[in-house]
Amino acid sequence: MPISDVRKDGNWIVVYDDRGKEIRRTGGYKMDVVGVTGSFFVVDEGGVWIVTYDEQCKSIARMGGRNKTVRGASGNTFTVEDGPWFVTYDRRCKELARRGKGGSASAKRAKDLGSIQQSARTIVETGKSVAAIPAKGCGLLIALISAAFFAIKGCLSTSDHSNLSTPQQSVSSGNAGTTVLAYASAPESKRAVPVAEPTAPLTPFYQSSTGQTFSVIGIAAGDTLNVRNGPSATNGVTIQLPNGYGSITVVGSPVMNNGTEWVNIRFRDGSGWVNRQYLRADSE
Predict the structure, then answer these.
(1) CA distances from 111 to 95, 101, 105, 115, 266 (A)
(2) Residues with Cβ < 8 Å from 133, sequence gap 6 or more?
(3) Closest Cα to residue 107, out of 236, 115, 266?
(4) Which region, left, alpha or beta, applies to residue 2 given φ > 0 means left and ψ of -120 to 50 means alpha?
(5) Closest Cα to residue 52, out of 34, 27, 29?
(6) Does residue 172 register a pLDDT over 90?
(7) 80-96: per-residue pLDDT in tens?
């Protein structure tokens, strides 16, 4: 039965059909209805989670909602404001597309800021100068100083094994709006094909302060490795890396989730979480 309206009634969320008759209700404490379509509705749960529900108030999917604002829903999609991006998701919280605020100019500024942050980390960690740093006005200079501060802070906290999280920076868009980092001959956005679990014990991973780097391995031809915004297969995909992509550093300790070991990585085009079995030390 199509959804006509969804309203907050005290501590309840109530779904109505096109005749104004109640279809179903569910507890709505600390929840806000932020988007409604004919087939699903979107709820913000305390600013922590964004959750989609069907007309029977059954949860369809959820994703992290910190620092994100749902701007509306239509048809089978809803749009979220996430930092410098407007991101479109389907009802299963799968990212379909993203665009910079204000169009291509804002997207370019976001890309420049990502280059500045990466350059600052390189300066702090290696002590080497960087030949090409975008420097267009005082705004970017301030961003460089800020990025350097946080990079220094991260290097000094090598004893802290808590999970780190930094803003994701996208540099190019593939199919379904997911950024794909690939060589000229690599195909566009596809999911990585799992390979057999390793039979030997996992070797220890090194933090980036040691200078150890890693490369992507074990990805079938025509596929890519998903980089997610959290240590779980349910977290959103932000970037995809091709087999052989290198110069990756690992930060902090691995996180076990449902039998999968996830590691927080940094690389020249961004950062995120990946399945540890698809990385190999460059020194091996």
Answers:
(1) 19, 12, 10, 6, 16
(2) 115, 116, 119, 144
(3) 115
(4) beta
(5) 34
(6) no
(7) 999 999 999 999 999 99
pLDDT for position 122: 57
Asked whether 158 and 250 are in contact (CB, 8 A), the reply is: no
Q: 111: which 2 tokens?
A: 């890309």
Q: Which 8-state DSSP code applies to residue 277?
A: G
What confidence score (pLDDT) does residue 282 get? 85
Helices (H), the chain: 104-126, 138-156
In the structure encoding, which two tokens stand for residue 167, read together? 């803003």
In the chain the domains, ranked by start, together with CATH numbers, are: 5-100 (2.40.128.630), 104-156 (no CATH), 175-281 (2.30.30.40)
Dihedral sign (CA 72, 101, 62, 175): positive
Contact 2, 38 (CB under 8 A): yes
Rg (CA), the chain: 21
